[in-house]
Write a structure and sequence with these properties.
Elements lengths: L2 E5 L2 E4 L4 E8 L8 E6 L6 E6 L6 E3 L7 E6 L4 E6 L8 E7 L5 H4 L9 E2 L3 E6 L1
Parallel strand pairs: 2-11
Antiparallel strand pairs: 1-3, 3-8, 4-5, 4-9, 5-6, 7-8, 9-10, 9-11
């Protein structure tokens, strides 16, 4: 299993910015496609964004297009989520996930059940 740890969450004002990090570790010999999901109180887990193994392709939920950017640094074995123009509705616990078994790349990056490794989550709160 790939071990993932998120960091960078916090409290920001609407319109502000925040950068989340997801550090991967474990006995891996190659990189994997990665995704970010979020879950607000009383709501189901929601797809946010994903990035391919090489970093050449990215995908975003309509609600965050133009505001969020996903990227990866292979040398640091880390995936980032840059969040700009934050809105109160972005408030949620954010989780990173790894497609280490290659299911999401075949069946859809937006399907949470296709990812096999998850981080512990980091809280993002946007005040109005």
């Amino acid at each position: 299993q790939v071990q993932l740890v998120e960091s960078g969450g916090g409290l920001v004002q609407a319109g502000g910015s925040l950068r989340l990090s997801c550090a991967a570790s474990g006995r891996t010999f190659s990189s994997y496609a990665m995704g970010w999901f979020r879950q607000a109180p009383g709501k189901e887990r929601e797809f946010v964004t994903a990035i391919s193994r090489s970093g050449g392709s990215t995908y975003y939920a309509d609600s965050v297009k133009g505001r969020f950017t996903i990227s990866r640094d292979s040398a640091k074995n880390t995936v980032y989520l840059q969040m700009n123009s934050l809105k109160p509705e972005d408030t949620a616990v954010y989780y990173c996930a790894a497609d280490s078994l290659g299911r999401a790349v075949l069946r859809g990056y937006g399907r949470w059940d296709q990812y096999d490794s998850w981080g512990q989550g980091t809280q993002v709160t946007v005040s109005s």
